[in-house]
Amino acid sequence: MTPLPKKKHAKARTRTRKAAISFSPPTLVTCSNCKELKVPHRACPHCGFYKQEAKDKKESAKPNGTE
């Protein structure tokens, strides 16, 4: 037999707990190279730019040593 709760939880208690669990929209910043929206501290998915160096999207997708 599975364990059961000793007492009933009030609806307010349950709803208060569930109200704290919420999703927030992702933080986005503009790429300094192409001005598209991107996630901060990541390479731009549109142009591949990251900080001062632009990385080729096709070359970065390949594993090292294989062509």
From TrEMBL:
Enumerate the GO terms in the molecular function aspect.
structural constituent of ribosome
Query: Which GO cellular component does the record give, naming just one?
Result: large ribosomal subunit
UniProt entry tagged with the keyword Transferase: no
Sorted keywords for this record are: Ribonucleoprotein, Ribosomal protein
Q: Which domain of life is it from?
A: Bacteria
Q: Which GO terms describe its biological process?
A: translation
Family, as annotated:
Belongs to the bacterial ribosomal protein bL32 family.
Q: Which HAMAP family match?
A: Ribosomal_bL32
Name it: Large ribosomal subunit protein bL32
